[in-house]
Design brief:
With 323 residues, the chain is α/β, with parallel strands linked by helices. The chain contains 13 helices and ten strands. α6 links the parallel β6 and β7.
Length: 323
Amino acid sequence: MKKIASVWLVVLSILVGLAGCAPQAAAPASTPQPVKLKIVALPILDALPLFVAQDQGLFAKYGVDVEFVPAGSAPERDQLIASGQADGMINEVLSALFFNKDGVRVQVVRYARAATSGAALFTLLANKDSGVKTVADLKGKSIGISEGTIIAYLTERMLAAEGLPPAEVKLVSVPKIDARLALLNSGELQAAVLPEPLASAAALGGAVPVLADTSHPEFSFSTLTFRKEVLEKSPEAVKAYLGAIEDATNLINQDPGKWKQILVDQKILPAPLVETFQVPQFVTAGVPSEGQYADAMAWAREKGYLTADIPYADCVNASFLPK
């Protein structure tokens, strides 16, 4: 019996030794944290795909964490990007050109929204008591715009196309959209250019629509733009972001009216317009054409904002779009 017990002790010690030599089970790999992208979005209709993507969990689906940074005007938006407090924004080609006049700092990666013959981005409206009903009536009148933005560019291009030289009106810079609307309603501005749906709200309040970019859609579009540093550091996150935006755009285009409450919640759609406002179709994946880019750059040079041309490829980059 003692011999049997001794044998079992030897066997047991061997088994214990072997167990000690066995490789340890690998710890489960940790899931990488999604890259966070901070996006500036003005309170405009163009931002709807961003909010739908967030509401429907599409950013999470694509593995990117998106934080929205509020801004009340284009200059405030640009300051957030310039200071590195935000990574991307809804802007326009002109904004990208101004950022890049001394070196490539940002790049346009997608259209955000584009005017069509049936859906406006911007409308020039006159105060109800101004006596202005046609483009010709605007001669000598004050028009509220946002200087150095697509609104200034679009206003001048549309007026010229309609036969009224921009030099024959008084362009007044009022960067904050809500302030521009208030000045129009009070009569301190005889006319103003407003984005949808505020343009529809102004018309509901009695303002007179005079000219919309539905007549000249080639001049009117907004863009999604990122800091070049972010594009180089986190290209997959930007691609994921645009993938989520594409899915959100398709959801909106399938059933535009379904998303009105998001516009109300984000204080983009005024309550009185909920029943009548038609959410437009949104542009699918694409970037501004070289022709659109060249015309915006030519205007910027005419105005003295730029002293030299900037190559299209420096400002527009389609490589992040969904394939």
